[in-house]
Amino acid sequence: MAVASVSAAQREERTAYLFLAPGLALFFLFVLIPVVAALYLSFCRYDMIHSPVWIGGANYARLGKDLASHDVFYLSVRNTAQYAIGTIPLGMALALALALLVNAGLRGVTLYRTTYYLPVVTSLVAISMVWMWLYDPTYGLLNYGLELLSRAASALTGRQVVIPPQTWLANPNQAMPAIILMSIWRGLGYNMVIYLAGLQGIPEHLYEAATIDGATRWQRFRAITWPLLKPTTAFIFVVSVIGASQVFAQVYVMTNGGPNNATTTIVHQIFQNAFSFMKMGYASAMAFVLFAIILVLSLVNLRLLRGGEVEYA
Amino acid sequence: MRLTVTRKALFHLLLAVGAVTMLLPFLWMISTSLKPEPEIFRFPPVWLPRLWKWANYTQAMQAAAFGRYFINTVIYAVVVTASNLLLCSMAAYAFARLRFRGRNLLFILTLGTMMVPGQVTMVPVFILLKRWPFVGGNDWLGLGGHGLLNTYVGLVLPGAVGAFGIFLLRQFFMTLPRELEDAARIDGCSEAGIYWRIILPLSTPALATLGIFTFTAAWNEFLWPLLITSKDSMRTLQLGLQVFQTQYTTRWDLLMAGTVVVTLPVLFLFLAGQRYFTRGIALSGIKG
After folding, report:
1. Where do the domains of chain B lie?
2. How do the domains of chain A map onto residue ranges?
3. Does A62-135+175-306 carry CATH code 3.40.50.2300?
4. Distance (Å, rounded) from C-alpha B86 to C-alpha B95?
5. Chain A, window 30-49: residues with a beta carbon less than 8 angstroms from a chain B beta carbon
6. Backbone phi, then psi, for A278, in 5-degree steps?
7. Could B161 and A27 be called an inter-chain contact, meaning their C-beta atoms sit closer than 8 Å?
8. Class in CATH terms, B57-286
9. Which of A4, A58, A249, B238 has the lowest tally of Cβ within 10 angstroms?
10. Residue B15 touches partner A, C-beta closer than 8 Å
């Protein structure tokens, strides 16, 4: 019996390694080796034609100089930060508001949820093209909306109000806000569904007890909903920060970083340097800076958001 | 919570206004795709074309090789989904049910791969595929040819398994009762048999969730096909659409017809499998 059980355990172990082998081999080949290779390349000059040449920390030094002199990489970091600041707080607030409305016990919840989620499943390329058409300076729907708005304002105030048509994506000051608006629209449904799941986890009797005690709607939100949603908020926030720091497709399709680098982002710069300018080493150094930024932000976020979790029995 | 009638009406109004805002770009896309050219450039714009020009679709399909892009995308998305379902569930079964040395370490390493942004590994993976020895005209050093670039294998392989899928399925497998397996084991069923005949059939909802997510992500993937394919005959729909856009910048009728074609399959998939989408989000979201 003892012999049999030893061999059974061995068989189990062998099966386990066999089951894990294909997955782990792929991770080894396409994650582990590439990370090490990328780290090595970030200390090299490499154009894919000649062999990599070790140049020490020169790529990183160049990035530092670029940041200090407010050059293109600096702009990409600044634009990425703008994108994050523009999309995350507003997007989360809207998603929470919608989730609260949808969760208020109305009819037709499924229909609303479906509608808000539609943009999430459609591809960024397709959606970016639709929004380029909406943003068209001459025939775009958005400028038509502005015209309707100015007409309505004129009628209401009795004075001539003119909101001039905007050039949106062609304007360095409006291009990033335009991309931000589109991205909020696209991501809203995802965050809303996560908030909904969070809201449904809050026990109803807490609200009943608070109502009996005479708490107002706002007080119930402050004392029950918001604190109990904290893990959900933390999750959405961390995921959003990681996603925002990697923004690429909508930038590539809608503006390709322009006009005048007004919308170039970190990943857009990595892509351009690696595959347009063939500066693979420099691009790898950028990628590691991005990696570091994401790592630090995630750790800081988790640290900040971990404290003060509330539980009500 | 009870709501007064006025409050209910107000909530419905807010939600409806929001819903229309969400739908507006889609409606505008469909409307434009059916307009004859002069109607597109009419200002103020019209929502319903006077003449429904279905020919926009045939013209768009002929202007670029959308049929080919479609086939490429289906192959890419189906193979990536199938391999993720198989490889993730196998690894997840080992992590959830089998005892072996190094289990915790390997599991942590697997999760660790989720921390690495794709942009870090993108350049070396590209080089690795280009210099894959003995394929695509390469010698044993990986020189001389294009390797796995512009091939289905190169498109699929780096995304054939994912740590998130392993994690998701492992969590699900751990909730399954052990009684059935124990009974099967006593009856002499092998571990592989238990995985294939008991665990997988019991896990259809989790597999459907992972499958739908992987398929949608692959269908919509842009950056990876952009790197790996340069030949028109290997492009996916997203890539083909983007190239199409750079060539027909002002033909909004054709461009919108193209976007409708690219978007519709995923929209149908979403509407059909909606509960799996929301379940997947709940699974990944709540526990954070």
Report:
1. 1-53, 57-286
2. 62-135+175-306
3. no
4. 14
5. 30-35, 37-38, 41, 48
6. 55, 30
7. yes
8. mainly alpha
9. A4
10. yes
Per-residue pLDDT of chain A (313 residues; tens, 9 = 90+): 445 556 778 888 899 999 999 999 999 999 999 999 999 999 999 988 888 999 988 999 999 999 999 999 999 999 999 999 999 999 999 999 999 988 887 788 888 888 999 999 899 999 999 999 999 888 888 888 888 888 888 888 888 888 888 889 999 999 999 999 999 999 999 899 889 888 888 888 888 888 888 888 888 888 889 999 988 888 889 889 989 999 999 999 999 997 989 999 999 999 999 999 999 999 999 999 999 999 998 888 878 776 555 555 4
Tokens 């390997």 found at? B106
Return the residue of A nearest to B106 by Cα: A24
Reported residue count of chain B is 288
Q: Give the separation between CA A232 and CA A243, rounded to whole angstroms.
A: 16
User: Which two tokens mark A71?
Assistant: 């050059």
Helical ranges in chain A per DSSP H: 2-27, 33-41, 58-68, 72-102, 109-121, 124-134, 141-157, 175-200, 204-212, 217-220, 226-228, 230-245, 249-254, 266-271, 280-306
Q: Which helix or strand (DSSP H or E) is residue B279 part of?
A: helix B274-286
CA dihedral sign of residues A232, A233, A238, A240: positive
